[in-house]
Every structure is written in C-alpha cells, then in structure tokens.
Amino acid sequence: MANSKRELFLKRRLRVRNKLRKVNVGKLRLSVNRSNKNISAQLIDDVQGVTLVSASSLEKDLGVVGKNNIEAAAKVGAAIAERAVKAGHTEAYFDRGGRLFHGKVKALADAAREGGLKV
C-alpha cells in the first residue's frame, strides 16, 4: 500500500529526530519548520519540555512578512542566533525536520552559525 507524501514526510521527520536525540543527549535542539509561505525556528530544551527562544518570518520587526525566500530564512536564522546568545545559549543541534538540508533550511542554519550559535 502506497503512503501519501504527508505520511512519508512524517516518517522521515521522526527518523531524523530520533537519530539526533540518541547522539545529542542533554543538548538544546534548534528545530526548523518550513511551510509554503513562512519559516520559523525554535530553540527547545527537550529535558524540561520548553521553548527557550523562537523566531519566525511572520514577525513584523524582521521585515520579511509575506516573503518566503532565502533572504527571509537568513534573517530568521540571524534573529534566532541573536536571541539565543542573548539568553546565554551558544550550542544546539540542528533538527531539520523532514526537510532536505538545502535552500531555505541551509540558509537559516548558516545564518545561525554566523550569528554565534554552534549548530
């Protein structure tokens, strides 16, 4: 029986996340969510189950509302890195979800690294 694209994506996301959790016990997780219109990132502490900082292309102060491109992803990555460093967090592991590491996801990760976050 053939799986739908959505089911395959969800399986891939869980597979990626479970492999990362085994290797990075106790570290913070930089989780990326990309939709057709927006991109967002969260720095999550899985031990306590809380989101520490977040950034999204929906925020008006970033100036990228309504834009879904690589520049918007880079601004979100820079914003998440700035907020994380300001909150005292400098290390995290990158959770790309079920997405491939290229394009907008890669731009976000690169901008977060340039902003001082070890991803």
Automatic annotation (TrEMBL):
Keywords: Ribonucleoprotein, Ribosomal protein, RNA-binding, rRNA-binding. It comes from the Bacteria. GO terms for biological process: translation. Pfam families: Ribosomal_L18p. One of its GO terms (molecular function) is 5S rRNA binding. One of its GO terms (cellular component) is cytosolic large ribosomal subunit. Belongs to the universal ribosomal protein uL18 family. Part of the 50S ribosomal subunit; part of the 5S rRNA/L5/L18/L25 subcomplex. Contacts the 5S and 23S rRNAs. This is one of the proteins that bind and probably mediate the attachment of the 5S RNA into the large ribosomal subunit, where it forms part of the central protuberance. This is Large ribosomal subunit protein uL18. The lineage of its organism: Bacteria, Pseudomonadati, Pseudomonadota, Alphaproteobacteria, Rhodobacterales. The gene is rplR.
